[in-house]
């Protein structure tokens, strides 16, 4: 009849001959059942696959971000960039292109609308 107890393998079989270059855990032995070993391998493979999938997703999302940033740059350039309809800017932003621009308001020496709106001199309508 077979023994159900795990078989121990001595650490000396796994330990390197030169102990100076040994890693800290190379002297320790761990005993696993076959089922635990299979579960650990399955989990390792699962997480490797998840990592690979997420790396691909990250690359795709970085491409999307770059495309959206280029769209933002294009729209910003269209909004704030030079307008094709306008000619070269005048010296001052508010300056008119006419040689002698007229001032706003009434012409000098002309009575304004106040003369039309004002009532006659007398209340009874006589002047």
């Amino acid at each position: 009849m077979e023994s159900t107890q795990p078989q121990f393998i001595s650490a000396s079989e796994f330990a390197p001959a030169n102990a100076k270059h040994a890693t800290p855990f190379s002297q320790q032995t761990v005993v696993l059942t076959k089922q635990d070993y299979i579960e650990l391998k399955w989990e390792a493979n699962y997480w490797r696959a998840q990592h690979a999938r997420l790396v691909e997703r990250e690359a795709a999302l970085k491409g999307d971000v770059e495309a959206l940033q280029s769209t933002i740059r294009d729209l910003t350039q269209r909004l704030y960039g030079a307008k094709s309809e306008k000619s070269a800017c005048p010296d001052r932003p508010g300056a008119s292109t006419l040689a002698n621009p007229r001032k706003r308001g009434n012409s000098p020496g002309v009575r304004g609308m106040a003369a039309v709106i004002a009532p006659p001199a007398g209340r009874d309508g006589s002047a």
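The chain has a mean pLDDT of 78. Residues 74 and 80 are 10 Å apart (CA to CA).
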